[in-house]
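Amino acid chain
________________
===
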Amino acid sequence: MKFFQVLSLLQVDYKSPSDMSALRLLSTVARRTPSALLQQRRGYAEAAGKINLSLVLPHQVFVQYSLPPFVLNDLMQAIFTSADVVQVNVSAATGDMGILANHVPSIEPLRPGIVEVIDSNNSSKKWFVSGGFANVHPGNKLTINAVEAAPLESFSPEAVRANLQEALKVVAGNGSEEEKMEARIEADVYESLQHALATK
C-alpha cells in the first residue's frame, strides 16, 4: 500500500503547516508498520469454500426427558446444526442476499421469505421463514435464528390463497385496530408465501 493510500484511508488533510508535524508522524508510522498489516484487504466471497450453517428455531422447543435422575430439558428445534454447505440465500430486510464462504461478517434481519440452502452436491432445499436474523460470523460460520420455518413444499397454494383472502377481509372490516394490525401482518406473510410458491 502506498503512503498516499494510507493518508486517504486516514482522511488526513495535510494542507496547513500545523498538520505537517502530523504528516511526519504518519510517515514514520507508515514506514514502521509491518507490510503484512498494510496489505490486508477484504477479498470477495467464494463458492469454492464451505459455510458452517446452523438454522435454528429458538421459539419452537421440544421437551426431552432423560432417565434417572429424571432431568427435563427444553431444547430448541434445529433444522441444521453445524452443517457444511456451499451457499445460503436469504430474504434479508435490505434485499435478497447470497452468502458464500469468506462473506463479510454481518447481522441481517430477515423478512418473511425463502431461505435456500445449497449443499456440495448442488442440490437445493428451501424453507419459508416468517422472520428472524442471519448472523455471518468470521471463519465461515452462519447462524440463522428464525421465528418459524417450514419446508416450502409443505404449503398448499390454495390454502395460502384462501387464508390471504380471510386476512384481507379482517383488514378491511370493522374490527378493532389491534385485530386489523394483526391481520395486516398475517396478510403480509401470506403474500410473501404466495410469491415464494409462485417462483418455486
User: Anything to note?
Assistant: The mean pLDDT is 78. DSSP finds five helices and ten strands in the chain. The helical segments are 3-10, 20-32, 35-38, 157-172, 177-198.
